[in-house]
Design a protein that fits this description.
It contains ten helices and nine strands. The chain is of the alpha/beta class and about 280 residues long. The strands form two sheets. A six-stranded parallel β-sheet has the order 1-9-8-7-5-6, with helices on both faces. Helix 2 (about 45-60) links the parallel strand 2 (about 35-40) and strand 3 (about 65-70). The longest helix is centred in the last third of the chain and has 26 residues, at about 260-285. The protein binds NADP nicotinamide-adenine-dinucleotide phosphate.
Length: about 280
């Protein structure tokens, strides 16, 4: 039996961050410190943890983090005003609006207000459209992380049948687009998909983006399939039944320690790239 590969996201993230360090130092040498602004609205403890983790990861790499915490009762207009201010702030290179925002806020309107140049989390419809057409600057971070893991381990998408389970705007749809751009034949499944197990059974590559713990069953998989689990559910549980899928897969991401850590490193990468782009524009003027 061939060895199974555990796709180690922590290792991939470390590699990404090590390479970024030199780029951050170079930017600092020309007088620019990359800066990510994070906006947290309300007091949801998980959102607060995620934002803190992202801010801390920035600072560890020498990237500035401007942390904005708005009260739960913030209106859509107030949030838009804060985003517009950050759009105008030349010291800020990337903007991350932690989602979900409280229900009374028009989240889509808030996302669309983020300047495309600063949309390092890939949440605007323009960013998504550009990603789908293959020239996007900053795809949303979890899809980018999945591609980064594949690249690190030399997993080819071309000609392969990729089945993505989930079609959310930040995950399922953009990862389907990225895989299609890599010349995979992509099937995107969702809650109305019939015969899901049959689709998965014909996949060379399975991306789980469902939001349901242990949802993807080992017996559904084709022998030797590659399994990328983007899921992150309560209790550190992925969307894939890991032990059962490990039996069949040739390569698989664990949860935790798979897609999650790489997602944060993609946010850092996009912020550095946004700062580099600004420096290039200034030097050309
Ligand atoms: P979401 O917006 O809730 O989308 C879930 C998708 O799964 C929907 O498209 C839904 O279909 C589909 N689905 C639900 N039940 C299904 C079923 N029985 N069969 C087939 N498809 C089904 O979730 P999300 O934001 O994309 O997140 C998905 C998972 O990724 C979650 O576990 C989340 O925590 C995780 N996540 C991880 C990271 C990270 O950094 N690792 C980042 C973001 C999200 P419909 O469209 O028909 O409703």
């Amino acid at each position: 039996m061939k060895d199974k590969i555990i796709l180690d996201g922590t290792r991939v993230a470390t590699d990404v961050k090590e390479k970024l360090k030199a780029r951050v130092d170079h930017l600092k040498n020309v007088g620019v410190t990359p800066c990510l602004a994070t906006i947290l609205v309300g007091n949801d403890p998980s959102s607060a943890t995620y934002v803190r983790m992202k801010g801390n990861a920035c600072e560890k790499l020498g990237i500035n983090s401007k942390r904005i915490h708005l009260p739960e009762e913030t209106t859509t207009e107030e949030l838009l005003a804060v985003i517009n201010e950050l759009n105008q702030d030349s010291e800020v290179h990337g903007i991350l609006l932690q989602h979900p925002v409280p229900n009374h806020i028009d989240e889509r309107k808030a996302f669309e207000t983020i300047d495309i140049e600063k949309d390092v989390d890939g949440v605007t419809s323009l960013g998504y459209g550009q990603t789908a057409l293959g020239f996007g600057m900053y795809p949303s971070c979890t899809p980018a992380a999945i591609i980064a893991i594949m690249d690190y381990y030399g997993i080819e998408a071309q000609g392969k049948h990729a089945v993505v389970v989930g079609r959310s705007p930040i995950l399922g749809k953009p990862v389907s687009a990225l895989l299609l751009n890599r010349n995979a034949t992509v099937t995107t499944c969702h809650s109305y998909t019939e015969n899901l197990a049959d689709h998965i059974g014909s996949a060379d590559l399975v991306v789980a983006a469902v939001g349901k713990p242990n949802f993807i069953q080992g017996e559904w998989l084709k022998e030797g399939a590659v399994v990328l689990d983007a899921g992150y559910n309560k209790g550190n549980i992925g969307d894939v039944d890991y032990e059962a899928c490990l039996e069949k897969a040739s390569a698989i991401t664990p949860v935790p320690g798979g897609v999650g850590p790489v997602t944060i490193s993609m946010l850092l990468k996009h912020t550095v790239e946004a700062a580099e782009k600004k420096v290039k524009e200034i030097s050309m003027n």
